[in-house]
Amino acid sequence: MTSREQVRRAIEFSYPARIPAVVSWVGNGALWETLRDSGTPAQQQEVDHLLSQIPKDLLVVKCQSFGWEFDRAGVAEGEWPDEWGTLWRGWKGTIRAIGHPLEEWSAFNNYTPPDPDIPGRMEEARQAIASNRDEKYLLGVVFLTLWERYWLLRGFEDALLDHLLYPDRFLALRDVIVEHNLALTRKMLALGVDGIYFSDDWGSQQALLISPQHWREWYRPGYEELFGEVRRAGAHVWLHSDGNVMEIVPDLMECGLNVLNPLQPMCMPVEEFVRRFGGRLCVYGGADVQGVLSQGSPQEVEEEVCSIVRKLSQFGGGLIATHTHTIMPETPIENVLAMLRIFLKYCVNQPG
Q: Which is nearest to 191 in space by CA: 25, 23, 308, 61?
């Protein structure tokens, strides 16, 4: 059974032969190199060996001129604009937005969004897909999808209030963003991807960033359009959203969500999530980088990752195993090894 079939079966609760796995470290590779180099030569060798044994079941494919990597020419050292006009600053392996092109609504009158048909935009994705079509699950990325793109254009605090203070302007800008990402989604689907990976961080540690009622009124229609486009094409809908989004998970499922990333145990209790959504929604996640992985002992890592894997995969699927987010450099290398050993155990010779 190919990696592609394993992932599809996990998402559709159709009893994969093993649990699919992805170990990607997420984010800046320099952070992972710092962590790996903190270990002894023997530990580094074991990490490399385990990584070589754990299946790489996903191939993530992105659009050219994507996100914050669009054009750094002609800007100050460490600062660059993306194709939407948001200004970014890089610092010690991290990035943050420092300038928002539509911070003043007057700028919206003459604003031109990026062209989804820019020459070469899909070329990198097309080449990657052509060489992996029959083996790996192909996951097209349309990141910074709606909420994140909106606040990157307007600024975070203004974005939280715009739907209340300027509803007409909010809807106009929301729809510009949705139409752009619909175009990218259609291009990805035309290339034959198996799923589309959207992203919008809607949760704090405790709750949604805005009231669920306001989310349903002002943002859900955008997700209905985007998710519906994917599902009508016969592909899966994935969503990355950090934090506690428990209140809108039923809405997201009604819109067409198949895979949620991540399930953060310190934000959303695993037992409650399984009780409410087990057997109906696949999780892309598993090892808590915020809690046990960075703060626990190797034995605690092993016990918790085993527990989460068993709870989420007990329905004939429902889990694509990975860590919940970026593994930070202060994480003990012994804990990384404990996590990798569990992933190898379940994702190669899935025990009963």
A: 61
Tell me which residue has tokens 């950090």: 242
| Whole-number pLDDT of residue 234 | 98
Residue 93 lies in a domain: no
Residue 270 included in any domain: yes
Contact 139, 132 (CB under 8 A): no
Rounded distance between C-alpha atoms, residue 68 and residue 292, angstroms: 31
Long-range contact pairs involving 202-205 (C-beta distance under 8 Å, separation at least 24): 202/147, 202/241, 202/243, 202/245, 202/248, 203/241, 203/242, 203/243, 203/244, 203/245, 203/267, 204/243, 204/244, 205/243, 205/244, 205/266, 205/267
Amino acid at 285: G
Domain interval for residue 298: 3-71+100-348
Residue 238 in domain: yes
For position 230, which CATH number holds?
Answer: 3.20.20.210
Of 57, 58, 50, residue with least CA distance to 340: 50
Residue tagged 């025990």 (tokens): 351
Evaluate whether 312 touches 16 at the Cβ level (below 8 Å). Answer: no
Query: Where residue 21 falls among pLDDT bands split at 50, 70, 90?
Result: confident
For the chain, the domain total comes to: 1
Q: What is the mean pLDDT of residues 237-250?
A: 96
